[in-house]
Amino acid sequence: MELENEASGSPGRASGGSREYKVVMLGAGGVGKSAMTMQFISHQFPDYHDPTIEDAYKTQVRIDNEPAYLDILDTAGQAEFTAMREQYMRGGEGFIICYSFKELIFQVRHTYEIPLVLVGNKIDLEQFRQVSAKFLFRRKEKRKRKKKKKKKGKKEKKKRKKKKER
C-alpha cells in the first residue's frame, strides 16, 4: 500500500466516495506522538511540548493512487488518561503505537485484528537510549532465523506425512 500526503489541514467531509480511515496515535507521554502528527499534517516540527489531552486532525492523502481521508486522533499519553485508551481503541480502524528509543516502554497487545504500525521515535537522542540499535538489529535477525527454522520444520513435517501415506 502506497500512502502519499496530498493536502494538509482539515479538508472537510469525505465526498464522492472517498475512503475515510480513523487512525489513533497511542503511546506514553512525551514520546513524540503530537510532533509526528504535526510533521505529517503540516510539515512542521513544534518548538515546544504541550502535553496533549486529545487532538483530532483530518487530512486528505492518496492511498494506492486513490484519494482518501485520514481522521487522526492524537491521544494523551500521561498515566492519568489511561482510562480513555479503551474508548480510543474502540473507535480506531488503525493504530500507530509510538515509543521513544529513549525509554523501553513498548507493550503491544494483539486484541484486535487491525493494521498496526510500530514507530520508534527519538532515535537521534542516542545518549539517552535504553534500547540500543544493535539490540534491535540482533532481535530482528533472531526472529528471521526462528521464522526460517519454523518454515523448514513445516516442510519436513509435510515430507514425513507424505512418506507415511505412501
From TrEMBL:
Region annotated Disordered, chain positions: 137-166
GO aspect biological process, one term: signal transduction
Keyword Nucleotide-binding found: yes
Superkingdom to which the source organism belongs: Eukaryota
One Gene Ontology term of the molecular function aspect: GTPase activity
Keywords, alphabetical: GTP-binding, Nucleotide-binding
Any one GO cellular component localisation term in the record: membrane
Family annotation (InterPro entries): P-loop_NTPase, Small_GTP-bd, Small_GTPase, Small_GTPase_Ras-type
Matches recorded under Gene3D superfamilies: P-loop containing nucleotide triphosphate hydrolases
Protein name in the entry: (raccoon dog) hypothetical protein
Organism: Nyctereutes procyonoides (Raccoon dog)
